[in-house]
């Protein structure tokens, strides 16, 4: 590729090769909540090495080889997927497999093959690079107002992001020293514009799934009221790691950026002293120093030990030392006495040196004993913690069993109560039926005791009763006496 695409000023500056990152830039935190920003050529903790060995075992089992895609990778580069998946080995293995498939499908001939498709989007200024901070990390600018999803599809933007970040990793980072970038996201008080939630998820998934542990800090400026309000509501429920990396500010200038970046490396619109940019590609690197005060970096000898402890700043030996005069007045007047005093001083110094050696030896022995005691105590604490966890699990199981027993007892009591209610209802129904039968029998007996003459006492005078048998009616009750009502005859039932 020509120098127009990758000019020399874009590459890592020569001062960065003499730079040694500070301890908090390499690694900080404890346990699973720790954060690692630099992976290459670093000594790993016990948790990191354990999780990495588990992941490697699963990769061998499923025939996944990440080094075929990236021959320059080391074991520590694979560790990024352990951090990005919250230390879950199976999820890390699946994420690495998806990453390999994604890169092969999107960039089979390398990331530079995407440049002809992405050139217009790079020049639009939606994403561009401007300067570096004190730690030589590139500063990425994202302007959401310049995303136009009416002209370009989401797939084209995904291609642009893939090319942009791979270009940045290959040409602007230095493994073991510079492995992250800083982002300034500008909403210009307009929110996401035409960007829908589905497109946001797709773009964010590309960043989180395929470029893990690369973000140093993201300063979000000029947010809309909705974005800032939602952030203030959701912030108390978010993880501390996310809150430390993403900082949404209700301002137009990220003041914190200037605490770790020279003002001439930042544009004026964001509080710096560099002129605002109108052409966005290739990346802009101002001709300015990288330190806050503008002084060049001192040359530092490269250290073989890249551990966290080795990065601690040691006290310098360049302090001012007082020099004695060449010949004092007492030496001239009493030279013999002066020589005797010098000899006595030498003897005292020898005695002091012997005492120091003895003290150092005793301290070393004490430290060894103390460290062994500490290890024993730690082992005992771990055992106690394991026993407590086992007891807690047993207690939980007991509580579950007791709950089940109580539920069964309640169900049995309910069943018994229902059965008793049914028995009571049956008894009440039987008593009611008996009482009704007795009432009917009494009514029938009372009717039988009545005289035949009394039965027709209520018949009006117009009705004539005949005792003769008639053939009128339905025939069922023709044997009963009939009555004459307006010339019609019918037997009485």
UniProtKB/TrEMBL annotation:
<feature type="compositionally biased region" description="Basic and acidic residues">
    <location>
        <begin position="391"/>
        <end position="402"/>
    </location>
</feature>
<feature type="compositionally biased region" description="Basic residues">
    <location>
        <begin position="348"/>
        <end position="358"/>
    </location>
</feature>
<dbReference type="InterPro" id="IPR001251">
    <property type="entry name" value="CRAL-TRIO_dom"/>
</dbReference>
<dbReference type="Pfam" id="PF00650">
    <property type="entry name" value="CRAL_TRIO"/>
</dbReference>
<feature type="region of interest" description="Disordered">
    <location>
        <begin position="387"/>
        <end position="453"/>
    </location>
</feature>
<protein>
    <recommendedName>
        <fullName>CRAL-TRIO domain-containing protein</fullName>
    </recommendedName>
</protein>
<feature type="compositionally biased region" description="Basic and acidic residues">
    <location>
        <begin position="409"/>
        <end position="448"/>
    </location>
</feature>
<feature type="domain" description="CRAL-TRIO">
    <location>
        <begin position="117"/>
        <end position="278"/>
    </location>
</feature>
<feature type="region of interest" description="Disordered">
    <location>
        <begin position="329"/>
        <end position="368"/>
    </location>
</feature>
<dbReference type="InterPro" id="IPR036865">
    <property type="entry name" value="CRAL-TRIO_dom_sf"/>
</dbReference>
């Amino acid at each position: 590729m020509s120098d127009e695409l990758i000019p020399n000023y874009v590459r890592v500056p020569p001062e960065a090769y003499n730079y040694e990152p500070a301890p908090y830039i390499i690694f900080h935190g404890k346990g699973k909540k720790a954060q690692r920003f630099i992976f290459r050529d670093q000594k790993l903790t016990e948790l990191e090495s354990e999780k990495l060995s588990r992941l490697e075992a699963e990769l061998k089992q499923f025939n996944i080889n990440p080094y075929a895609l990236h021959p320059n990778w080391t074991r520590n580069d694979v560790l990024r997927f352990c951090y990005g998946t919250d230390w879950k080995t199976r999820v890390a293995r699946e994420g690495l497999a998806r990453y390999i498939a994604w890169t092969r499908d999107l960039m089979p001939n390398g990331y530079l093959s995407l440049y002809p498709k992405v050139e217009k989007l790079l020049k639009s200024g939606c994403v561009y690079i401007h300067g570096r901070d004190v730690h030589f990390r590139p500063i990425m600018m994202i302007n959401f107002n310049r995303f136009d999803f009416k002209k370009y599809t989401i797939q084209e933007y995904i291609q642009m992001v893939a090319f942009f970040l791979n270009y940045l990793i290959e040409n602007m980072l230095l493994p073991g020293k510079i492995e992250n970038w800083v982002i300034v996201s500008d909403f210009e008080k307009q929110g996401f514009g035409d960007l829908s939630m589905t497109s946001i998820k797709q773009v964010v998934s590309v960043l989180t799934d395929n470029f893990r542990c690369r973000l140093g800090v993201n300063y979000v400026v000029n947010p809309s009221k909705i974005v800032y309000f939602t952030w203030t509501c959701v912030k108390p429920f978010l993880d501390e790691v996310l809150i430390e990396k993403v900082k949404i500010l209700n301002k137009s200038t990220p003041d914190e950026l200037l605490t770790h970046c020279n003002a001439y490396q930042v544009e004026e619109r964001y509080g710096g002293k560099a002129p605002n940019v109108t052409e966005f590609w290739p990346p802009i690197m101002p001709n300015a120093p990288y330190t806050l005060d503008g002084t060049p970096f001192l040359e530092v000898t490269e250290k073989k030990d890249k551990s966290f402890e080795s990065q601690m700043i040691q006290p310098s030996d360049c302090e001012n030392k007082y020099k004695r005069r060449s010949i004092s007045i007492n030496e001239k007047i009493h030279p013999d006495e002066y020589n005797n005093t010098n000899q006595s001083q030498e003897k005292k110094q020898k005695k002091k040196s012997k005492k120091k050696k003895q003290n150092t030896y005793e301290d070393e022995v004490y430290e060894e004993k103390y460290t062994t005691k500490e290890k024993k105590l730690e082992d005992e604490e771990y055992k106690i913690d394991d026993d407590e966890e086992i007891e807690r699990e047993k207690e939980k199981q007991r509580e579950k069993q007791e709950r089940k027993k109580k539920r069964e007892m309640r169900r049995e009591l309910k069943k018994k109560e229902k059965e008793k209610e049914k028995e009571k209802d049956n008894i009440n129904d039987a008593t009611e039926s008996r009482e009704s039968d007795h009432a009917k029998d009494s009514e029938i007996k009372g009717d039988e005791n009545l005289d035949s003459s009394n039965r027709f006492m209520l018949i009006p005078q117009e009705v004539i009763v005949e005792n003769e048998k008639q053939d009128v009616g339905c025939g069922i009750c023709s044997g009963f006496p009939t009555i004459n009502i307006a010339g019609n005859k019918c037997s009485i039932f």
